[in-house]
Structure formats: C-alpha cells, structure tokens
Design goal:
One of its GO terms (cellular component) is plasma membrane. The protein is of the alpha/beta class. The chain contains 20 helices and 10 strands. The chain has helices at residues 2-14, 29-50, 53-78, 86-95, 101-104, 106-126, 139-164, 167-170, 179-186, 188-200, 236-240, 252-259, 276-285, 311-317, 335-341, 365-381, 410-415, 422-441, 464-470, 496-506; strands at 224-230, 263-268, 321-325, 346-348, 358-359, 362-363, 386-391, 451-457, 477-483, 494-495. The strands form 2 sheets. An 8-stranded mixed sheet has the order 4-3-7-1-8-9-2-10, with helices on both faces. Strands 5-6 form a two-stranded antiparallel sheet.
Length: 520
Amino acid sequence: MPLILAATGPFLAESFVKSGTDDPTPRSDLFYVLSPLLGMLVFATFLSITGYISMAALLIVVTYGGLTVISNLKVKVLRDPFIAHDFENARHLFLHPEFYINHIGLGRVIGIFALIGIVAGFCIALDTPIAARQTLLPPIIAYGLGLAGWLLVLAILSRAGKALIHEGKARVLGIDRHPRRDVARFGLFPAMLLYGLLLMDRRGKTPTPWNRASGPAPCEPTSDIVVIQSESYFDIARFYRQLEKNAAFRWKTLDALTENGTQAGRLDVPAWGAYTMQTEMSFLTGIDIAALGIDWINPYLKYAHQPVWSIAHALKEAGYRTICIHPAHKGFFRRDSVMPHLGFDAFLGIEAFPGAERFGPYVSDRALGDKIDTLLSEGAGCGQPSFIFAISIESHGPWEAGRFHGLMNEDDLVAGDPTGNLAFALYRQHLENALALFGRLQHVPNGLPDRVIAMYGDHQPALGDVFSAAGFDDSDVDYLLWHSARQLAPAGDLAVRDLGRLVLKAAGFDIEGIPHIKTA
C-alpha cells in the first residue's frame, strides 16, 4: 500500500497544482514516467531516514500536499510556481522570516510543522521500525547499513541523472526553463527534479574572461556615479490611467523631476513581483540573463560565485572606488559572496545602519540617502570618484494595515488614492519617498564633484489582484537619469541590460570600449 501511494499519490497532487499559465500545454511523456518514479524515490528516502513505513508514507503526503499549497500560493502572489531554486530560499524562511512568512502566513507555517510533529509522534508510538522487523542484525546496524546503502543508490542515480539531463539536452526534451510552461508540461514535481539536475550541470557555465586592457576610458573620470535600485519602483501614472476617470492622471512628483532635467523612460526587466537578483545581475553586467540557461532564474545561486564582468569592474579599473549598499542582511540571496565577484570594493549591509530611521518595517530611503551622502563626502575627501550602487528596501511588501503606525494616517492615504486600496496606497507613499531621495541627491554640495544619478525599479510590486482588477498587465518598470553639470539626451525606453551602458555614457565614458560578457 505505501508503494502504491508513493506511485499514484503524485498524480493526485498534480491535479491540484496551478502552473500559472492558461496556455494549453500538453503533458510530456516524461510527466507519466517521472511522477511515479520520483514519488517512490521520495518515499524510499523518507523510509531510509526515519526507519518507519507509516512515517514515510505520511511524510510523502505532507510533502506533496504542502509543496502543492505553497506553490499555488506562490502562483497567486508572484505568478510563478515553486521550483528547485526555491529550496535555496527555504533557509531564508528562518533567517529572514519577514520576507516569507508574512506572505505565506504564520498560521500555515505553524500548521505544517505541527502536522509533521504529530505524524512523527503517532508513527513512533504505533509502528515498529523496519530495522527491528528482521533478526539477522541488531536494529541499529541494520538501520545504518540500510541508510548508507540508499545514500549510495541516490549518488549513483544523481550521476546518471546529470549525464542524461543537462543544458545541452534541455531543448531536445522540451525544457524551455520557463517555470510556468515547464510545470504545465512536466508537472510540478518532475519539473523540480529536472531543474535540480540542470542546476547541477556546470558545463559551459563559466563566463568568458574579459580583456582588462580593453576597458572603457573616461573623458573626465571625476564624476561620482550613484545608482539606486529602488524596490518595486515604476511610474504609477501608467497604472492610474487604466482606472476609470483617471485617463489624464499626472504624477506631480515625477513631473517635477523631469521638468528639472531628469530623463525618464520605461525599462524592460526580467522579473515580476520578486527575483530582484535577475534585474540586478542584468543591470550590473549587461547580460541578457535569458542566455544563462537555468541560471537565469537565480544567477546568484551558482553562476555569480566567480568573477563576472560588471560596470563596477570597469569603474574600478578607471580609478573609482566601488561600493554596494543594501540596508538588509548581507547574506540574503548570498550577496555577501556575489558582490566581490561583481567588482565591489565594499558591501555595506544592515550592520552599517545602527539605529537608522525606519519608514514602516524597513530602513527608510532617507536613511539610505544619509549613508550615500556620507560616502560621497568621504570619497571627495580622499580625491577619488565613487560609484555607489544602492539597493533600497523601504518599499518592500507586504503592504498591510498598521505599517505606518505612528508615522501617518493610513485612512487618509487610502481616501486620497484613486484605487481606494490600502496596500496600493501604502506602496505609493514609499514611491513618493523614493523620488524624494532622488531629488535630494540632485543637490550637490559645494566642493563635491559632479555626479550622475540613476534610479530604476527591480520589478513590479506583487499586487497582482489590484492590477488584475484594473486590467493592468504591464510588467515594465521605469528609470530616471540625471547629470548635475549637463543636460542628457533622452534615451527613451530600453532593456535593463542596456541601462548600465547608458549610465557610463552619461558619466563621459566611451561605451564602445565596454565589453559584452559572453557565455560559453
């Protein structure tokens, strides 16, 4: 019976899975092969670890059921299903619960672990370990040998899987590395297995080394450069114009900046609602991350744990000091390992903001501006131009009632917002603060170098229900660009991978000398 459950249960679970796409996608033959095979492998693994048949059977139910619920919730919030890359983020569930548990729901998390604990207790009390059902060996030795033998089997199967499933065969097998389509085609759990095997394939994953001698030569390498990757920033006027009676809406705060010489445009980014690292990596390196194979989903998981050319490298070679600021935990998305490989001399995290002002649950954009001002003054003091790449955090969701307690009246914000939606009204206030930060940095104190300032959004906010109700399905964000000493020519709409080159051009660099990273 447990084996029958392990082989057929996955098909039952798959019937409840939401892939996130409505496109009619026929099931691959691999779905019917891998679903029962994976189910039996998972069951055998639980059996080897726990030693109880009943516990292994019930754990497979909890695992398949729990992952189905979590994946469907992820589709609802972020439009994409749960995939192998998300197991990396499982550690953040405990390290940084504010980013995950608030979305999943504390009750769901407690319920899942409580259920696992109850299951384990009943199994231990009512069942007999499988190692104790034989008489040839002492139970503890039988258990150890069984576990060791199964781990050996898994190692052999892993090597065989890597030989059969790799990037070179992905297209042949119909794996296009788009989570929604692959889950619809292969099923949620087989797709996790396939993506996991592709992640283990490191063939052809090493960036082509760049020629250091061909780096860009600035005309006047004296302008400071500040780039702000602003959490979930986009021109909300585009959304408001979708609403009834708001077709002529103007965002006055943004208009004031553009009337003062700030260039603005729409920005095509690979992410929506989350996966900041996709946009971040593409901006810094100029890479079209769709060319990274399975690594495009999270280039910080494996790909960027080696030197990769970036504009930070180029600026460092031109005499700049390069600093990344993120007023959050440095280990999130493994940035503490990645940022040095992307050319930054220093990476400042939450430890650099002791006692900093918060606006809502996170460090405010005003406090981030204070840190940027301090660093620019220090750079001027030592006669070295600065490149500061700041990753904001203030406007990170979820946007729930009480977020601005003691700061402002949330009811007034809702009443003054065309949507009448609390989450969007709170989110909009954060965007006002982001634009205020950009405007503040335009005031260059006497004695400091000229500066180039850019700001762009990493992705749209995870407010799918609000957008869907208005018929708004645009995934583009927006960017701003300004130079303190001269008017910049309009650049129009562009892709995020081209924005870094535009920033360097604004600072006076010969962008024709900037190498494009190529992947083997």
